[in-house]
Design brief:
About 35% of the residues lie in helices and about 30% in strands. By secondary structure, the chain is α+β, with helices and mostly antiparallel strands. Strands 4-1-3-2-5 form a five-stranded mixed beta sheet, sandwiched between helices. The protein binds flavin mononucleotide. This is BLUF domain-containing protein.
């Protein structure tokens, strides 16, 4: 099975509370599990970063749906490419709050105000991003 990992950033249209997101995540996780998709959703203030990984067709089909979702905008693909193994195998969609210090840490990698590079890169070319996201996932997850 060819595994793909995609990382994008976006801005939420309306502010979500952690409770609202937890409720939204329930059916999303069921869908992801059925599609063999794992990943991580980071949310804080109105910044969103999500990692989606799994079979390449399933990842791209889900991303098409997500990118067209009116609940967020300015969707920018940061990384998209094949991976040898999952980085977030434990979670059908982990969720972690992106607090100020984490936003600052991420901005150091992703760019000021989380503005990403113009063209998405291969995840393997950006190991620091995956490593940092994994660290966030290890620290606080629902
Ligand atoms: C920030 C964000 C992240 C999302 N992540 C997922 C996800 O991981 N899995 C999922 O099934 N839907 C996710 N969705 C919801 C999809 O956009 C879509 O509403 C859902 O898959 C239902 O699709 P359908 O109405 O075409 O059945 C996400 C939406 C947003 C705004």
């Amino acid at each position: 099975m060819k595994l793909q990992q995609l990382v994008y950033q976006s801005k939420s249209t309306i502010p979500f509370s952690a409770e609202q997101l937890e409720t939204l995540l329930r059916p999303w996780r069921m869908h992801n599990h059925a599609q063999r998709i794992s990943g991580l959703l980071l949310y804080g203030d109105d910044d969103i970063i999500q990692v989606i990984e799994g079979p390449v067709e399933n990842v791209h089909a889900l991303y098409q749906t997500i990118a067209a979702d009116a609940r967020h905008y300015d969707v920018i693909t940061l990384a998209d490419g094949p991976i040898p193994e999952r980085a977030f195998a434990e979670w059908s969609m982990g969720f972690s709050a992106l607090d100020e210090s984490r936003r600052e840490q991420l901005a150091g990698y992703v760019g000021p105000n989380l503005a990403g590079p113009g063209t998405p890169v291969h995840p393997g070319q950006w190991p620091e991003l995956t490593a940092l996201l994994r660290e966030f996932a290890a620290h606080q997850l629902s």
